[in-house]
Amino acid sequence: MTYDYDVLVVGAGSAGLSAALTLGRCRRRVLLADGGPTRNAPSPAVHSFFTRDGIRPAQLLQLGHEQLAPYPEVEAKELKIKRLTKLAHGFRATGETGQGLPFEATTRRVLLATGIEDILPPLPGFRELWGGSVLHCPYCHGYEVRDQPLAVYGQGKAVVGLALLISRWSANVVVVTNGPGHLTDYARQRLRRQGIGLRQEPIARLVGTPKTGLRCVEFTDGTFLECKALFLHPPQEQRSPLAADLGARLTGKGAVWVDKNAQTTVPGLYAAGDMVPGQQQALLAAASGSKAAICMNEALTKEDVA
Q1: How far apart (Å, rounded) are the C-alpha atoms in residues 224 and 220?
Q2: Which of 79, 92, 198, 282 could bridge to 85 as Cys pair (CB 3.0-4.6 Å)?
Q3: Nearest to 111 by CA among 7, 30, 18
Q4: Which residues of 138-166 are buried (b: 16+ CB within 10 A; e: fewer)?
């Protein structure tokens, strides 16, 4: 069977663009399916990205697309891939274009780089301020709010670990649990020892606007906690069901399991970026995309020269 492409890359964020670039340089026939905005789209800047510290997310993606132009084997299209069907030695992809027209193509390998979705608390202000002053990654945004009053949202062991980490950037940190925090005596002791406050009152809302930023946390009893930013590690889910629909193994936390070569439990199906286990950062996603591309090219080469 003749396939339309060597590799279909689903998702055009840092991981997908990096993979497409590496595969283009390997002279592979690549289709990059750009499904729309990425997870970091609400953020004002991408940080800790070597040579691009502080760049706007949209500008980083634009540069990524522009740098694919010299590689004629790479096609980047606005596509929503809705289904992958396993074939004997590849996959059939079906979906629709950005204009709503039906799309179908075959490919020898698939790289999923569709990312994850953050599930934010259903409280006023969290979604509105997300990416600006409601944040998930201190390595990405901690420096910009250094030495400011900060809140850390969550419960149990996880919020303690995050609060202790955030204290590296500010001496004024308060944990807010929105009700009982389910903290052990030892956890409370660790917070006190680091000078981290604790507020367990139910939260009414976050006060602020995307333009002015977070001003304070308002509790249901009418009291306030002034802060310039709030950090949390929200639950996450896959942005795309494609891996699960093919029967790929997921971890207990919902990430797509991959082996040392970035391949899922479905032969020929690879995954990279935030959707796989590990730390989540744009630079790391780009690196994982490049690694997956190298592994796919080497697997394809073994088939080509057999």
Answers
A1: 9
A2: 92
A3: 7
A4: bebbbebbeeebbbbbbbeeebbebbbeb
**For residues 35 and 79, is the Cβ–Cβ distance under 8 A?**
yes
Residue 183, both tokens: 């903290």
The 3-state DSSP class for residue 104 equals strand
Please say whether the beta carbons of 272 and 3 come within 8 A.
no
Neighbours of 130 (CB within 10 A): 19
Q: What is the pLDDT of residues 233-262, one digit of tens each?
A: 999 999 999 999 999 999 999 999 999 999
Closest CA to 141 of 76, 74, 230: 230
Tokens matching residue 162: 């995050």
Of 261, 242, 240, 288, the C-alpha closest to 92 is 242
Structural domains present in the chain: 5-117+235-304 (3.50.50.60), 120-232 (3.50.50.60)
- Rounded Cα gap, residues 241 and 245, in angstroms: 6
Token pair of 35, please?
């499904």
pLDDT digits (tens, 9 = 90+) for 104-151: 999 999 999 999 999 999 999 999 999 999 999 999 999 999 999 999
| Per-residue tokens: 157 | 């062991």
